[in-house]
């Protein structure tokens, strides 16, 4: 084990609105801190090098790859995971639309998709299908295909803008 992994760092942050204080290995990735230390297993660790988006979480208002961020970097941050966004009902309409449009099969990519989609929708306006595709282009889905996912996000975008039903 290298020095980097042995050294510990104190962090104080909020996770899903709750204060969290911890002493973390300097080299621990945020996704592992959330999953292994806090038991928040919604965000997944898959490629673990920033490609697939399965580990997407929200940090200080923007989508972040949990596998590319160190837990030590989260000191002072406001972190939201799919669990917190679910509990606050921030993504209930997105989740309902994913189900209604069959926008998931195995569901492995879904937490990351939802967090990324919410980032886009919370920016306001009504994104086009092209903009939705572009925004979700860093989130891979291996089994559903992207058409239904874009359908779901588009329907929620229109519903939030008062232009249709999700
Ligand atoms: S696990 Fe982080 S991008 Fe794939
Ligand atoms: S639903 Fe299976 S990877 Fe997307």
From TrEMBL:
PANTHER family listed in its UniProt record: OXIDOREDUCTASE WITH IRON-SULFUR SUBUNIT (PTHR44379), XANTHINE DEHYDROGENASE IRON-SULFUR-BINDING SUBUNIT XDHC-RELATED (PTHR44379:SF8)
- Which key words tag this protein in UniProt? 2Fe-2S, Iron, Iron-sulfur, Metal-binding, Oxidoreductase
Give the 2Fe-2S ferredoxin-type domain ranges: 9-85
* Lineage, highest ranks first: Bacteria, Pseudomonadati, Pseudomonadota, Alphaproteobacteria, Rhodobacterales
- This protein's name: Carbon-monoxide dehydrogenase small subunit
A molecular-function term among this protein's GO annotations: 2 iron, 2 sulfur cluster binding
Q: Is the keyword Metal-binding assigned to this protein? A: yes
Q: Which InterPro entries match?
A: 2Fe-2S-bd, 2Fe-2S-bd_dom_sf, 2Fe-2S_ferredoxin-like_sf, 2Fe-2S_ferredoxin-type, 2Fe2S_fd_BS, Beta-grasp_dom_sf, Diverse_Oxidoreductases
* A Pfam family reported for this protein in Swiss-Prot or TrEMBL: Fer2_2
Q: Which domain of life is it from?
A: Bacteria
Keyword Repressor annotated? no
Which organism encodes this protein? Roseivivax halotolerans
